Amino acid sequence: MKEEIKSVDETFITKAIIKKAADDWIEFSECDVIVVGAGPAGLTASIYLAKSGLKTLVLERRLSFGGGIGGGGMSLHKLVIESPADDILREFGCRLEPVDDNVYVTDTAAMMAKLAAGAIDAGAKIILGVVVDDLIFRSSPLKIVGAVVQWTSVSMSGLHVDPLPIKSKAVIDCTGHDAEVLAVASRKIPELNIMVPGEKSMWVDLAEKLIVENTGEVCPGLYVAGMAVAALHQTPRMGPIFGGMLLSGKKVAELVIEKIKLRGNL
Ligand code: 48H
Q: Of 125, 151, 107, 122, which Cα lies nearest the Cα of 38?
């Protein structure tokens, strides 16, 4: 005999959702790291940040994670990964198919799912459907101390609704091609002298090398990883090869961990 489906009152559902969501927002209104964007760089960074014990909040505009992973190469459901980034995907159980020496192909859906599960299992909190549209800053010394968040639906509606601030020891721009957080910093905190000229045309090997090399701190409290690095440093794009994104995410996590954990605060 089958078990009867449990009866749940309508308002019980409402109360449970509001209460538990509010608990999360209160808990994460002060955190160690805010990762903006749940693409390959943001998810990889949040895996290692959360694994190290840092209170990590990932804020993603869409109602899904993965960023540009899902689009594969021209909407074909495969991506190319070159070594040594294959080790990162293996660590989180993502299947890889070798296609050349140290070059692999993976399914986009598998890569999205495994990276996101890795971040969640490590303890990162991923909140979907929210957009970071500003930063919190302090002067003397000049530093970033948090981010300002709005619902994606509100930002798309064109209504004027004031956003909410969240404080953190570090904010990482993992917003991809448009480097949205850095663009805000450039426009609204001119004393930071940040320029976001945008990426260059394609040159795969150079692009991958420079993305990883230029990943890091932009100013105290503000970091950049992934494709946003190319927008900031005007370096080439690489197309659908994702090793650089993963290595950049891992590198920024290591830098932030070192800064926050080993040297105290920022
Ligand atoms: C909240 C935001 C905001 C915001 C954007 O585009 P992504 O996948 O970025 P990366 O850097 O992790 O990976 C880039 C890669 O996907 C790619 O495009 C490559 C390798 N291209 C090469 C080429 O030649 O074209 O993910 C960024 C995520 C997305 O999910 C956005 O929705 C999200 O960030 N996002 N979330 N607040 N202001 N802006």
A: 125
Q: Which residue has the higher pLDDT, 264 or 4?
A: 4
Look at the chain and count its residues: 266
For residue 43, what are its two tokens? 């998810």
| Interval between CA 245 and ligand 1 midpoint (Å) | 10
- On the question of pLDDT at 56 being above 50, the answer is yes
Give one word for 150, left, alpha or beta, with left for phi > 0 and alpha for psi -120 to 50. beta
Give 123's contacts (C-beta < 8 A, 6+ positions apart): 50, 51, 56
- Provide the β-strand partners of residue 131: 150
**The pTM of the whole model exceeds 0.90:** yes
**What number does the ligand 1 atom closest to the CA of 226 have?**
11
Q: Rounded to an integer, what distance in angstroms lies between the CA atom of residue 83 and that of residue 255?
A: 21
- How many angstroms is it from 98 CA to the middle of ligand 1? 26
Looking at residue 29, what DSSP letter applies? T
Name the superfamily (CATH) of residues 34-74+108-262.
FAD/NAD(P)-binding domain (3.50.50.60)
With cut-offs at 50, 70 and 90, classify the pLDDT of residue 3. Answer: confident
Distance CA 188, CA 166 (A): 18
d(CA 133, CA 124): 21
Q: Which of 140, 76, 69 is nearest to 110 (CA)?
A: 69
CA 72 to chain centroid:
18
State the pairing for strand pair 143-151/164-173: antiparallel
Q: How far is the CA of 172 from the centre of ligand 1 (A)?
A: 12
